[in-house]
Design brief:
Oligomer: single chain
Shape: elongated
Helix content: under 10%
Distance between the termini: 130 Å
Number of helices: 4
Length: 759
């Protein structure tokens, strides 16, 4: 009996001496018992739940989450709060905090027989957004967290280091490990958890502490826990530019990042500002107009997205705060392509089946602009659109460039040709591009002059449509684009065209990263010019398809083609589509704009030289006569050459207000006019050269003249301009109410004005 008792005691001694320790539920024979035995009683007494500043989640239950790095960097032991309803685990809490707080990141081995293993935890201490990991010293391909998580498929945690050595980061399994301590409301002290985060069931009022334990010995839980301040995304979207992203089809809806001039990249700024809402599927276009940001996606939603709430084919947000204003799944029946602000009340939506009106005041999608439809989804789609002071020019696949009068929303001309894109140059000229041709389009007469691109070509962007690399500078009178490649190899050079000299530089810039097996290639529109600085913004990805597309760079070049900055995005399938620049300035009217004019005869004022905008094209500034308080004394209109034409009708005084609309920002100027008498006597001498009939008229009014008519306007008795279409020498006035009107015609030789009676 004594021998049996002695044997039993020796067995129990050996058992307890070599008992297995479970790290996150995993039995560890390589650890001695003293590796985790700590004096940890009452270590969290220095703070309570009321001291926690950053709470993640919602619900009636709450728990505290603590991470202690023991790396001599302060503050060390950080604490967050987690709220929930129903059931939640320690893993749920960790992942929710990692997703919400972009400073916190973790290395996980998910799906083991013991649940998810926590291999490493980090925190961006210096606010540089550089929370990338380097595995086995491979700094060429750092690993960036998605929703705060870098995943691995082995217990290889010791192989990872932080890209930014100034941040909190510790990982390990064999050379140290993350100990897990828990405390429930009924517990007096913390205890070492024998299970991992997956099996840990949270209780209302519980505490979880992750405390890194090096192999040399464990640290007690700190007596000083520091509450983490809430994560605040950037709300200043003026100093930098946006990058609209297609995002990863089948996984994530569209998004937008903001790249600050300070080098900081703010990811998914719209989603951050709107509780994880996103855009539609394959967001391809964005533009800012009137302090509103319009995002256009091809489809309404990506069925594979479970993390972000889709927003539809058109999403409208506040351009200064990113707060959502409105979303639209249906934009007329087609897929989204582009958007153009026409005036402060109206926009045009470019779609796969035509152009649709958009009511900016009431946030409503309207009807199809007549003449813009036709063709199938991939043979009649609308591409880029630009606004001049007088017209809208829109590229339509296969048809050419549609010229639209925004006053009547009608197509007044079509410039036929296989065009891909269109831009406005600094000098006011309009340029459209084909495969190997540039077309110079007169903004008033629509006459076209072609210039052959000497050796290179421009890539066709109609197939899987994107906005294309064709872009213009607002500071230099130049155009840029990326030359087409061959086969599956995109082009690697930026072409520069001098608008003034009409000369090509087909190798102005060679894209960076052209050595090695995998090269940098353009993606999406890939190239845009910052309107306020003239700098070129180039976005590239890595060739090789598949996982290579997780590598993305944004390069900045100055006007001389010098590379001045490169930003590397966190590894992810962003598929950047288009750079968009903030509209920070309003139009500025020159002090040479007169405050008063004495008019004895027809007087013209060139408004093109009177207004400018530091971050918008001056030629696209829309000039209109907003009001005329005495139309019986003087008529005032703006012609196709952007000239204010003042015609005296009688002796007296009038006050007119001119409106200048630059990209939705409007300023006004008042002009006092002293009219010295009527100019109709001059017109009477020219009766034989100009006439209208019948007068009175019921439906069709005919114009008789041998001169070239540049513009015809009709005003009602109050002086208000009536929108009527002059076509082939005649005007259909059948829709006009009965009454007296004034018809004014400008020809290449004179200005005519006659009374018109509609019966």
């Amino acid at each position: 009996m004594k021998k049996f008792y002695l044997f039993t005691m020796l067995f129990l001694f050996a058992f307890f001496t070599n008992a297995q320790i479970k790290v996150q539920g995993v039995p560890r024979n390589d650890l001695s018992g003293n590796a985790t035995q700590l004096n940890i009683a009452n270590t969290a007494a220095n703070i309570s739940f009321s001291d926690i500043q950053y709470w993640v989640g919602t619900g009636s239950n709450q728990a505290a989450f603590v991470v202690q790095w023991n790396d001599s960097k302060n503050p060390d032991a950080l604490v967050w709060g987690f709220r929930w309803d129903g059931n939640a685990t320690g893993e749920d809490m960790l992942k929710a905090i990692a997703k919400a707080d972009h400073r916190f990141f973790t290395l996980l081995y998910q799906g083991t027989q013991f649940g998810t293993a926590i291999g490493g935890l980090g925190f961006d201490l210096n606010g540089q957004n550089s929370n990338a990991l380097i595995k086995s010293g491979n700094a060429t391909y750092p690993l960036y967290p998605v929703d705060g998580i870098v995943n691995t498929t082995a217990y290889d945690f010791d192989d990872y280091t932080a890209q930014d050595t100034s941040d909190h980061w510790v990982s390990g399994w064999y050379n140290g490990f993350w100990s897990y301590y828990v405390k429930n409301p009924t517990d007096a002290d913390f205890g070492f958890s024998g299970v991992g985060a997956t099996s840990r069931i949270l209780q209302n009022g519980s505490w979880d502490v992750w405390n890194y334990s090096p192999m040399s010995g464990s640290f007690p839980i700190s007596s000083t826990l520091t509450p983490v301040s809430p994560y605040v995304t950037s709300t200043n979207f003026t100093n930098g530019f946006f990058m609209v992203n297609e995002e990863w089809f089948g996984h994530t809806n569209g998004s937008v990042n903001f790249i600050g001039n300070n080098g900081q990249i703010n990811y998914r700024v719209y989603s951050n500002a709107n509780n994880n809402h996103a855009f539609g599927a394959t967001t391809q276009y964005g533009t800012i107009y009137g302090d509103k940001f319009y995002f256009v996606s091809k489809q309404a939603a990506d069925g594979g997205d479970s993390q972000y709430t889709p927003g539809g084919r058109l999403v409208v947000a506040n351009a200064q705060t990113m707060q959502k204003i409105a979303t639209f799944n249906n934009i007329g029946g087609g897929d989204g392509r582009s958007f153009l602000g026409v005036n402060e009340h109206k926009g045009y939506i470019g779609a796969s089946n035509g152009i649709y009106l958009f009511d900016i005041d009431n946030m409503q999608v309207g009807s199809l602009v007549s003449g813009t439809g036709g063709g199938s989804q991939y043979s009649g789609q609308i591409g880029n659109m630009i606004r001049t002071s007088k017209y809208v020019f829109a590229v339509k696949q296969a048809a050419g460039v549609l010229v639209i009068d925004p006053a009547t929303d009608t197509v007044v001309n079509t410039i036929a040709g296989p065009f891909s894109s269109i831009v406005h140059a600094k000098d006011g000229s309009i340029w459209a591009i084909q495969n190997q041709k540039l077309a110079l389009i007169d903004p008033a007469t629509f006459a076209v002059q072609y210039f052959n691109i000497p050796t290179t070509k421009y890539a066709d962007t109609w197939g899987a449509w994107n906005a294309g690399s064709f872009t213009a500078s607002n500071t230099e009178n130049t155009l840029y684009w990326i030359k087409a490649g061959t086969g599956f190899n995109p082009g690697n050079q930026i072409v520069k065209f001098d608008v003034t000299a009409k000369t090509f530089n087909e190798s102005f810039i060679t894209l960076p990263g052209q050595t090695g097996t995998y090269k940098q290639i353009p993606y999406g529109a890939a190239l845009r010019v910052n309107p306020s600085t003239g700098n070129l913004i180039l976005n590239t990805t890595e060739s090789g398809f598949g996982a290579h597309y997780q590598k993305n760079w944004i390069h900045t070049y100055d006007v001389n083609g010098n590379l001045t900055n490169t930003q590397t995005l966190n590894d992810y399938y962003w598929f950047p589509a288009l750079a968009v620049f903030p509209d920070n300035t309003a139009p500025i009217v020159s002090n040479t704009f007169p405050s008063q004019v004495t008019a004895a005869n027809v007087t013209t004022i060139d408004l093109k030289t009177m207004v400018s905008d530091g971050d918008s094209f001056g030629a696209s500034i829309v000039k209109t006569v907003k009001s005329n308080n005495n139309p019986s004394v003087v008529s005032a209109e703006i012609n196709a050459n952007e000239e204010l034409v003042i015609t005296p009708l009688a002796t007296g005084f009038a006050e007119i207000v001119i409106s200048f609309n630059s990209n939705g920002k409007v300023v006004e100027r008042t002009l006092d006019i002293n009219s010295l008498g009527s100019t109709l006597a001059t017109v009477e001498v020219k009766k034989l050269e100009f006439g209208i009939y019948p007068n009175p008229v019921t439906d069709i009014l005919y114009i008789k003249t041998q001169e070239k008519v540049g513009n015809i306007s009709i005003y009602d008795a109050s002086g208000k301009l009536v929108n009527m279409q002059f076509n082939n020498g005649q005007i259909n006035v059948s829709m006009l109410p009965k009454g007296m009107y004034i018809l004014k015609a400008i020809t290449d030789k004179a200005v005519y004005q006659q009374k018109l009676i509609k019966k």
